[in-house]
Please model this.
Amino acid sequence: MIFKNTITQHGVFVRSGLGFIMVCLFVFTNAQTVTKAEYFFDTDPGQGNGTAITIVAGDPLTFTPTISTAGLNPGYHLLYLRTRSSTGKWSLFEPKEFLIDDGRSEYFFDTDPGPGNGTPLPAVPFNGTITPTIPTDGLKDGVHFLFIRTRHNDKSWSLSDPQLFYIRTRIVLAEYFIDKDLGFGNGTPLPIPDPDDLITYKPIITTPALPDGVHYLFIRTKDIHGKWSHFEPVVFTVDAALPIELFDFVATATLDGRVKLQWTTATEINNDFFTVEHSAPRLEFNELFDVPGAGMSTREIEYEKIHENPNPGINYYRLKQTDFDGTFSYSKVVSAEVIKPTSFYPNPISDKWVVEFADNNGNKLKFLEILDLTGRKIAQFKTDRTKAEFAREGIATGTYILKIIFPDTRTEFMKINFR
Model:
């Protein structure tokens, strides 16, 4: 029988590992008293045959029973609740899904400890999507992979798709010194306007009275853990007779295989133009391009140019500064190592596949590993070529991770598919 005009509403909340569910139940009837309530899991045993819930009869009725989940297997279940009125009619019921979790979900970082040996994920209310909060305490700065997997009722484990993430430490302090290191924390402080893990910062540094000649500026930073960074000297020259005071000249390789060239002048006297010159190992310098100078200037001026097609490997650069009268002088030589991205094709793979190593390792031995999504190695290859072709060798259809280990211990990862 259907009890008309009966409205029931209840919510289910799971407490992992405590063996019970707390249910908040609100019942409104049409001028009749609720006298009984019962619940059951998964399968209806018939009206009146469920497990009774102790209530105080009334209309409307609000009560919060504690329902034991003892005896239920791990996994998802349905909870049903219904009430009976003083006329003997039973209400409708609405199933509520909940999870009994015995640690069947786990995660690990970088290296697979084996199924069941990862860090368990806590049970959470299930609504089709689980978004756990996973701590990264103890991981070093750099690139990491997160793996998550679940165990089915038949005790088999799912695959896991690695998620790439980075850990960087916030910078909170910076300092500089010239020529001589005074010890950590004893340099001249540089204010950090917005502490962060990645800072683009161009401080104005006033140099003290320095003798003519070459000098070295050092800048280092400290993170929130109190660790100081390494530092790289910036060379500058003090010479009243020079047409320019070149404060800095640096070459930086970019991720897309180019080189960014930057230099700064503090003063310029009769400066007509700069010429950027380039060389590869054991080769002569050649002109790349000219950059107009400022002529006469007493303010700091920044210059920047891009070398679009440098050689893979080490590239050398120097600046030639030319006056209006044709006299010229050279800067120090700087270098940048260009590592161009590895290319892989075709993707997806039907039979054969090719890897091109556009880097400076040349004909040196490189190892390639194919990992499944749990991190397990299923195949290994090696080559000393800059372009190598490999056969499928019976690898099953699916998604995998290609891990490339270079002679300099650098490692690259990319997702590949076999069909």
Observations:
- The chain has no helices and 30 strands.
- The first strand starts at residue 7 and ends at 14.
- Confidence is low (pLDDT under 50) at residues 1-18.
- The radius of gyration is 35 Å.
